Structures
1.
Amino acid sequence: MPLSTQSQTEGDNYVLVASLDNVRNLSNILKAITFKDHAIFNATPNGLKVTVEDSKCLQANAFIQAEIFQEFTIKEDSVGFQVNLTVLLDCLTIFGGSTVPGVATALRMCYNGYGYPLTLFLEEGGVVTVCKINTQEPEEPIDFEFCSTDVTNKVILQSESLKEAFSELDMTSEVLQITMSPSQPYFRLSTFGNSGNAHYDYPKDSDIMELFQCTKTQTNRYKMSLLKPSTKALALSCKVSVRTDSRGFLSLQYLVRNDDGQICFVEYYCCPDEEVEEE
Amino acid sequence: MKFRAKMIDVGCLNHFTRVVNTISKLTKTCILRLTPNNLYFVLSGKVASGGVGMWCELSQANFFDEYQLEGVAPDANEICLEVTPENLSRALRTSQNAKCVKIKLTKKHCPCLTLVAELPTLSSVSRVVTHDIPVDVIPRRLWHDFKEPRMPDFDVSIYLPPLKTMKNVVDRMKNLSNFLVMEANLNGEMNLKIETDLVSVTTHFKDLGNPPWGDDGSQGRSQSRDPEVMAHTRVDIRKLQQFLMGQQVNPSKAMCNIVHKRIIHLILLHEDVSLQYFIPAVA
């Protein structure tokens, strides 16, 4: 196979090598967190974690386990680098963004360590593209200190009907308000825009509600501009878990099935909008 | 000066429309040369078109059932017009189902190419749609600018990879860089490369084949050439992208001549249409 011969000529200096028969199993999930140019990559023997942050208030993480890759070899406990995510996505989709049935683009991703570029070998129909993307020293991702023991409210919903709600959300509203409560309205999304106030209610015994664990009534507001990118992750997902902690921090976790039916996760953490705290 | 032509075959009409659509995607304005045997859509490769040259040749007999031309003079039996191909494209779009399409040179408030389409209706009476497309007549003293371009003395000639694949790759590369290097050798290998501070991307095409040009002068230079050595030219990526975007039909032959560091000469051959496109090198 042409890709393996190319990596041999570059020597065995790779600290990370990851291969996929279908590059979409990586590019699709990365598209779900591409709202900023830069992404922090962290690889461990468990797999790949990609982090994107916005103004210290929002963090998105995509997890692609080692088992998803056809080959995943790592020579250190942890390999980290930062790279321009838009450039990376343009490279991963170099043969075009759409799928042609029966035709897949294969990927071999290699990294030599600090100071070296991220090297991608992509192959489709006998045509090989080699990309070398400059890397930077990875920044430390923010620790939102979101702790599962501090979770006050948690629901798990099937994504289908949340997708509808999110596609209809009034974007003229500066905030998205989330109310979670052991009593009515149970789980409510609210907007306050130019067309007025809108509420989307999901009762606790509706069939799309897979899990309902709310201990305390909580209402929190989050900047709409921060949460808007999460719609991409929602669109890819089949299930989503919504959790808030005692500080009102929001954790959204999306279960995504890739082209081959394997499971990956995307999570978003968001700080509550300052305004509400003052009340 | 007189020009009248008539198309009655739906296949010819569709084909002609596709050609005009392709031209309209390549350039906003161009020269239309009408001769007794052929039509040519021409860009002269001057600064005005960004140095890009185009020569599209159609054999009139393959499209028109009737074709009458009286040029500017008996010894210069042709007409040279400046046209906006998009206008012609639009007019042809409304004529898609026509029983008959006539094109003629007329003088309304200014010189025009008038397109008259007879469209079928449910009744026995046809509906007639007329488009008057303003054109500029190019005087004879300027005709020398629009002659058929000479085949450049190329270093490498190679068949192009599938245009769709090229287009996908070039579209992505355009997001990353303003300039692209095209290189090829006589071993049927072609690379498309971009390089910036952030990223370098190279796409490798193999086993493309090299056209056998025969023993003419331009082959002389390439006959003694080491087949492994690449000839390369760096171009404005948008010009290559524009060329690839316009292609609507797969050509029967597609090839490229590269003059090292000077020019990329693309040639597409269809049954009755040939298109040549010249992209100059940038520093």
2.
Amino acid sequence: MAEAEESRAGGAAKPLFAGLSDVSISEDIPVEGEITVPVGSHSPDEDYSTLDEPVKDTIMRDLKAVGKKFVHVMYPKKSSALLRDWDLWGPLVLCVSLALMLQGGSADSKEDGGPQFAEVFVIIWFGAVVITLNSKLLGGTISFFQSLCVLGYCVLPLTVAMLVCRLVLLASSGTVSFIVRLVVVMAMFGWSTLASTAFLADSQPPNRKALVVYPIFLFYFIISWMILTFTPQ
Amino acid sequence: MSVSVTSGSRLGFPEPHSEARSGAERPGPVPPQPRGMMSGPGGAAGAGGGARSGAGAEWGGFEDNLQGGGSAVIDMENMDDTSGSSFEDMGEMHQRMKEEEEDVDAEAAAVDEEDGEFLGMKGFKGQLGRQVADQMWQAGKRQASKAFSLYANIDILRPYFDVEPIQVRNRLLESMIPMKMINFPQKIAGELYGPLMLVFTLVAILLHGMKTSDTIIREGTLMGTAIGTCFGYWLGVSSFIYFLAYLCNAQITMVQMLSLLGYGLFGHCITLFVTYNIHFHSLFYIFWLVIGGLSTLRMIAVLVSRTVGHTQRLILCGTLAALHMLFLLYLHFAYHKVVEGILDTLEGPNVPPFQRVARDIPVVASAVLNTTAKAIALTL
């Protein structure tokens, strides 16, 4: 900085920075001090190191972030919190709990308990990856992990439906319970699809929204079908 | 004219156009060649001179506009930043360092002598900082090029997904309508979105059918079987028919074949969706003949229009028709309750009435083939 001042004052006769192409890195002036870059979108509590805080604070902060996203999914307003600070904790928890609840429900032999868990896991993640790739290839502006985050979080209504179905099946397992389960699962399926569409469809060109919504519809349809046909043994 | 040559050649582009426009008597396809010949030597000389004079002029323009005398605001972008903190500066510094390397060495040596005495590391700090920044620049460049090549792979598929919903709907409907025009090659849209979505829909329908028929698969998963069957058919039969088309000299590319067969699965989806829910045997056979037949006829017409010679047409279309119709038959009978009924009636009193046999996949395939043959023999 000092030398620039000098060169400007001394070189008033010649045009400023005319000799810049000749000047290379001449003197090594140590740069000291603190450089804080004012970034508007970050929260103000990030300018101290988070390494010294108690572990409870760290965990609670992450849990609160996950919980806030759950609330966003249940009441899908057009906020960008879900998209901006993506994380995959919530989808992992939902996926594992759904897979655990769906386990061991289809066959009478013990061997089918294992593949059931892996099946649900693979369907959810593989399906989410395919939908994300599809939306990117159709010209979407959303990033890969943001899309995975949204699709994973929107499995929440279906997990709630699974809980309700399990409870209903504990009570009775006749036609009435089937109708109740059908209604609940269909409602939650609609909710999931609408929630994820509300977040994802904005990132697409407007005339192609239908092309992006259809795979999401298929994806949640398959998960709903697995929930509906679940019968405990 | 000379003025336009100099200013245009710096950018490289406007000059050829002005040349081509001035020589308007040249016919359409010819301009690229004379344009190249004429602008080559002129452009190179002009570009060299223009670049150098332009660089001086541009630098002068910057100084005049941005740094007024006595202004307290310093534009860091134009300053010679020794800390090397930004990558763009590192890139520029690379170029400048290559040009005046002697100056750097002389000045660095002088600095080391001056400052090395009373503040030991000061001289080193600048060079160390520069080296670290240099390495960071290289690493960043490597990572960026790796990431770019990863994304470039996705971009290879992008043109095949460039569709509108209206187009997809039209193509779905057209896949059921055979066109009689077999003297001119019929147009096939090389698009992959529709076929991919149809394959996934078929997977979903198969899952639905397997669940309602309580299919038990021991060494695999329901989902894995459905995905494997549908994708295997789409990719495998497409490749096989493409290979046959290559042997029979048919004019069709791989993407077009994938697209054609994918849209042909639309008939399968409709048939299976209806007959998995309404379990009438005769209804299935009617659907099989009518809807399966229509989509097969459409594919056959397209292939015939693109093949020359009777034998080749026969081979290609016969194979495709057989595979397509038999696949629909297989899907219906392999994953449907009806299998148990037929097995019971055919095996007679040997099989106890309420036994549900857990089936492995290879066993299923052979059982289904037997069943299918017997069913066809029964109905004929």
